[in-house]
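[job 4471] stage=fold_predict status=RUNNING
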Amino acid sequence: MNQNINSTTNNLKSNTFWGIIFVLITGTIAHFVYEWSDNSFIIGLFFPVNESTWEHMKLCFFPMLLYSLYMNKKRKKEYPGVTSALLFGILLSTFLIPVFFYTYSGIIGKTFMPLDIVTFIACVLLSFRAVYKLTLSEKLISFTGVLKIFVIIIAVFFLLFSYNPPDISLFVNPER
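[job 4471] inference complete, writing structure tokens
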């Protein structure tokens, strides 16, 4: 029985590792897809249409959402807490982007592309660490519905604000 527990934990670790790799690769590629698509309207709903912080949040949100659908289907029976953990991870990675970006750029007084890349990597790593820990602890199961609503709301905001952003700094291209 102990071997079976270790086997499922190893499966969760493996899915977490591959989730990190998937999100890092697809998030990186996603940065260029809108331009590659010759500025396709539909593509712009899911991929960054400019260099604003808001649009860069899509680099975590949509790849992590996509991988979460896979991982949830794969691990839900073994780990009842995986759904809520993944939903939390999506939100965490998405909202850490502006937190880290505005913190570092506020401290040094300018943006710096290598730190933008480190920010993205750190957001992905921290969110999957949280997913792994929260899946095992099952602490968020009772919040699954609320987390689902928040993820849906953010997805709708991404669709709405891609081409009609509010007039606040989160949606403005930063000075380089």
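[job 4471] summary: Residues 2-36 form the longest helix (35 residues).
[job 4471] exit 0
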